[in-house]
Amino acid sequence: MTWTYNGEVYDTLPEDYYGFVYIITEKETQMKYVGKKFFYRTKTLPITKTRKRRKRTLVESDWKSYYGSSPHVRELIEDKGVETLTREILHLCKTRGDCAYYETKEQFDREVLLRDDYYNGIINCRISRSHLSANK
Q1: Which of 5, 109, 27, 41 is nearest to 73 (CA)?
Q2: What is the mean pLDDT of each run of 10 residues along the chain (136 residues)?
């Protein structure tokens, strides 16, 4: 199962973006889940004989095989498989702050806590103006 963005398959690791906001939809019931995922994760290299300090690097995350953090979606995958879901990227984001902002914006705009056709059970965010790419 692949990600789609603007109606096209999206499977390339972008250099200019840090993450994305997505929606996962169950085909049969049209139940949805809105979340965010980062293209990269940090990896800390240990101290060695030649390197006296730990070194942090960015490596590709598991975004290609990711299906959300919702326990409902995970249970659905165990019961019915990934073929029952569609995965769509709503926003490509340049910073972590952009991801947090657009995820929260989508969740409020779609009223995910008030409607019965969303798996989302919580909206959790803490965003500073300085974290948004528009302010850099």
Answers
A1: 27
A2: 92 92 95 95 86 85 91 91 94 94 96 95 87 73
Name which of 68, 70, 76 is nearest 28 in CA terms.
Answer: 76
Q: Is 91 left (phi over 0), alpha (psi -120 to 50) or beta?
A: beta
CB 51 within 8 A of CB 45: yes
The enclosing H or E element of 71 equals helix 71-80
Residue type, 70: S
pTM recorded for the entire structure = 0.87
Q: Which two tokens stand for residue 73?
A: 């979606």
User: Which tokens is 91 given?
Assistant: 């926003």
CA 28 to chain centre: 23
**d(C-alpha 42, C-alpha 103), whole Å:** 21
Distance CA 79, CA 66 (A): 17
Q: How many domains does the chain have?
A: 1
Residue ranges making up the domain that contains 19 = 3-135
Q: Can you give the CATH number for the domain in which 95 is found? A: 3.40.1440.10
